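FAQ: What does a ligand-bound record look like?

Like this one, built around zinc ion:
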Amino acid sequence: MDTVPALDTIRGWQEELYRHLHQHPELSHQEHDTAATVAERLRSFGYDVHEGVGGTGVVGVLQNGDGPSVLLRADMDALPVREDTGLGYASTETTTDDEGTETPVMHACGHDVHVACLLGAASLMADSRERWTGRLVAVFQPAEERGDGARLMVEDGLAGLVGTVDVALAQHVLPFAAGTIATRPGPILSAADSMRITVHGRGAHGSAPQAAIDPVVLAAMIVVRLQTVVSREVAPTQPAVLTVGSIHAGTKSNVIGDHAVLELNLRTYDDAVRQQVLDAIHRIVVAECQASGSPRPPEFETFDRFPATTNDEDTTATVRAAFEEAFGEQVTDLDLQAASEDFSDLPNALGVPYTYWGVGGIDPETYAAAEAAGRVSQDIPTNHSPFFAPVVQPTLDTGTSTLVVAALAWLGTDARPSGARPTGAQPTDTPATDASATDVPATDVRT
Ligand code: ZN
Ligand code: ZN
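The answer part, i.e. the structure of the complex:
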């Protein structure tokens, strides 16, 4: 994408900023320096900036006449991972986590890419105000990895800061070839729920079961019975995973304890299925406690909750058409992802449609070689790996252009006959890419 003149104007500072962010990652809810950098840059571009939204969140608003309002979102947090990429700008930082433990920290999920790309797009949009009208809202959210950053921004009055929004858009750098962009209508990321369940028995000597209500047997019955929820209650066409990942009870072989604690994790792609499984878990646990003669009701505690991400069909079709117009054969289909995200908490709270896409971050030659050898899963590091480090280019150029192209699909005024650019061509005038892609019928863009 060396032919994109507008990208040339930002590439210098953007790459430098990206390496700086990568070298100085911050854990969830601790994104203070990142947020300050974001706020300062947005102000320099001419945005109205709100800081400290939901903790360390930053919102930049650029009003440019009348028109639609587009929300673009990037997440800012890093992970407690010791970087092992060997890069010259690798993180060597450690920090103190919420439990007070010293821990290494790394941008192992690529959120530094997201921040650099959204700042780049915000700059390009500010510099090309003659080509669009409306309102651009740039949301930099904390704590995606904890699943509560978006919700905290909502609870802190995000809606009042951004006004009416027509559409919300977000992207994630993923372990496929850099320069490639992947979209998917409908379900894309799972909802995740973690739950801690405490069930109560009555303790006694191991030789006197008649005096006890054994929480180990009770917990075991619950674990077995929970296996029937997905296999016997959920339709086979609906993906769902229910895992009891932890079970703790008792202290000694000849002592019957008085309680057991189970921790489970649930993944679903559909709100109705999610609620169905949660209801089933509750029903089974309560009933098994009754069956055992448990002296007290069980206790349920949910944590690390992520909403499902389900891309709006029309919004995805609009973005896909704009991408195909701008990037041609670089655009492909994204598989259903088992991971989870909290981005959708923003559009769900604002009551607006959304779409979420992937951009590749792996050196294209490295990826092609791994693919040819049938060794993608062995040779290509995934997000959250200590070896995950997107190549700087074309990752940043692509991830910046996608945001601009997608935003202009709603905001752009520089209408141009669709199909003017040959299929497969690189974008030549980002951010001047026009809104004509929205002219392409939605039925033409999903194959
Ligand atoms: Zn992550
Ligand atoms: Zn991530």
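Follow-up question: can I read anything off the structure? Yes, for example: The domain at 191-306 is CATH 3.30.70.360 (Alpha-Beta Plaits).
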